[in-house]
Amino acid sequence: MAFVSSGYNPDKPMEDRITDIGPRKYDEFYPEVIGKNKGKWSHHEILEPGVMVHVGESGDEVYTVRVGGARLMSTTHINEICDIADKHCDGHLRFTTRNNIEFMVDSKDKVEPLKNDLKSRKFAGGSFKFPIGGTGAGITNIVHTQGWIHCHTPASDASGTVKATMDVLFEDFQKMRMPAQLRVSMACCLNMCGAVHCSDIAILGYHRKPPMIDHEYLDKLCEIPLAISACPTAAIKPSKVKLDNGTEVKSVEIKNERCMFCGNCYTMCPSLPLADTEGDGIVLMAGGKVSNRISDPKFSKVVVAFIPNEMPRWPSMTDAITKIVNAYANGANKYERLGDWAERIGWEKFFEKCELEFTHHLIDDFRQQAYMSWRQSTQFKF
Amino acid sequence: MAKHETPLLDQLESGPWPSFVSDLKQQAEVRAKNEAGVEFQIPQDAVEDLLGVLELSFKHGRTHWKHGGIVGVFGYGGGVIGRYCDQPKLFPGVEHFHTMRVAQPCGKYYKTDYLRQLTKIWDMRGSGITNMHGATGDIILLGTTTPQIEEIFYELTHNMNQDLGGSGSNLRTPADCLGSSRCQYACYDSNALCHFLTNNYQDELHRPAFPYKFKFKFDACPNGCVASIARSDMSFIGTWRDAIKIDQDAVNKYVENDAAYPANAGAHKGKDWGPFDIEKEVVELCPTKCMKFENKTLKIDNSNCTRCMHCINTMPRALRIGDDRGCSILVGAKAPIVDGAQMGSLLVPFIEVNAENDYEAITEVIENVWDWWMEEGKNRERLGELIMRQGFQKLLEVTGIEAQPQHVAYPRTNPYIFWKEDEVTGGWERDVVEYRKHHLR
């Protein structure tokens, strides 16, 4: 493994240095039909799940085949995507915000060969490489975070929970039988580097044990005032601790009953780890949306306070998700998002229809906004 | 023969959805065989060890990655995230396994020659594992060693005309929907605005000078495909001020259930919902009840329309967005850390999106907001939290925007108004002696 220089000279880092050039310009990458019709599109139609046509005012058409996939992706896989795009799409493709891949062709006769090619490709383990779907009133790909593959703060895995969930929901990725689109998102800790708090169904990794305190190293690794100020409930205060060997060190003390396990202290101080096999698991939230269509955007609500991490396939979690999806699919009106359905029938009915248990954990007690969620009416259903 | 046994991960290879485990395994094999003769600059078995450490996490139910150390490229404060394994003896191939964020092109369109160039660099100088894409929008290169970071940066900038993205307390890589490039709902060119602002604010993106992270996201219409209203400190959502354009003939095609005019552009084809009913599916679902369908004519009272997109989405061949287009700016959205989640709040109901003057109306709002936040924001305080702490009025004051009823869902329910002295006739200095002449103690 001999070192191969790129041309960079570490002794003269500023020599020929290029900075602040930003991303490549978008229109270098547009397929020809896109560049030509940009800003002049007339309408579109979803021809079948995963296949769309957009029609320009010029009469030009672009056919898009959308496929799902894991956002965790190898270069081998990317090169295969490139092979497909070279073969069918003049070397163009795009990714969607929800980690789908879109292959575009400029005439209808190119669609079937593309679809057949995509359908024929499978991984050695048997799963599809490029399942077609993810459009319209169905369930599209899950946006998610890193999890155990690459992050230091997760309370669950991301790629694993997503694979388990999408296997269970796969039929609805390739169908459009839902009352409206249903967006599932996953964040493996409360930091939500992928924000999930406005999703129809949100899978959230959560800790349930207060941090352990690594007294011996805390003052060496952390700025104590930053760790203290990181706590939103003021549960952390400075302290002096005598180690077993008799030396006194500066550290912190934690009021465990004030901790709501957000992990913000651990972000600031590596000597306050929270991760725990039994303590960590999944919170399910439901009923959020970001679109302004019909009703306002809204936050997801916690509907299952805790599900243990059950590796490798999280069956209790996928069961609960399946129950929510089916109750919604059977109960909601056409165009009605999951949260709008729950509000129309009432959350008390939501728990009944979804066969989910309501526990005291689901009543908000965090700060003043909690009050807004309590029932201030005699209008409720038995 | 795999380096590590992975009995738990192996169970994620079955099932129809693309298996990341199968993909990691194929990558491990490609690296082991090295038929392309790559001169690997990080351990050849890095992906084997990545599978190994992930399997250990599946066994323990806990992560095995440590806090990031300070790594980066010279002169930048973001774009690289240090990552170290907490079991380096067991998995030496991923002992140092840093992340690099590469700024994605707006709209996430690619040409294969670009992607192939990128994978070639990443195969040689990194693990070959990526995220396409990270949650913020960047291309994520997952796993390389410290000495390779400058080399990769050099190759990206010199050979690919490509820069890194943001991380840390700076402007994060802005992200957009595909906008007018392929969508008739787009009220502005989100690719162009996103690209302009990304380049205009390269300094803010690469050199952290902010109290905390700051995100721009661009949704070209109120459907909100990139969720800007929920997850960006400044959300730019396309809108229009004039009338929805109606093609009455096309409306009647929908009403007649013409096969070429499927409701909602065909999104409900997977279930038989019965014939399309314009009354039930459009008129009655309009949130402001500003539409009527009488004598084969659809009428919209545009002055009462809130541009929710429902009727346009449902009959895209009949209804089009108006022509007086621009965007709304909403501010302060964030995920729950620390004080709870916030949705974006409307700051500018309508602003022009004008490329010809370098979007000067928009940059003025941005820079006023930044000046205030950089001056007043506490360490790790997001814009939304500063607005909560100092008040929405303060935000209006620093941006010079006049209060309008559009700013609120409803007016305040308490009279605890912080009147300013200059708003009250005579000011606050008073003479208690004079007062007592008329009001005995």
Can you walk through the features of this model?
The complex is a heterodimer of chains A (382) and B (441). Chain A is an alpha+beta fold. Helices cover 25% and strands 19% of the residues of chain A. In chain A, strand 5 (92-95) and strand 6 form a beta hairpin. In chain A, helix 4 (159-173) packs parallel to helix 8 and helix 9 crosses helix 10. Chain A is globular. Chain B is an alpha+beta fold. Chain B is built from 15 helices and 16 strands. Chain B has helices at 7-10, 20-33, 46-60, 112-125, 146-159, 190-200, 202-206, 228-231, 248-255, 278-283, 310-314, 360-376, 383-390, 392-399, 432-438, and strands spanning 65-66, 80-81, 84-85, 99-102, 109-111, 129-132, 139-142, 175-176, 216-219, 234-240, 245-246, 291-294, 297-300, 319-320, 325-331, 345-351. Chain B has a five-stranded mixed sheet with strand order 8-9-10-15-16. The longest helix of chain B is centred in the C-terminal third of the chain and has 17 residues, at 360-376. At the A-B interface, strand 1, strand 4, helix 2, strand 5 and helix 4 of A face helix 1, helix 2, helix 3, strand 1 and strand 5 of B.
Q: Could you write a compact summary of the structure shown?
A:
The complex is a heterodimer of chains A (382) and B (441). With 382 residues, chain A is α+β, with helices and mostly antiparallel strands. In chain A, 25% of the residues lie in helices and 19% in strands.
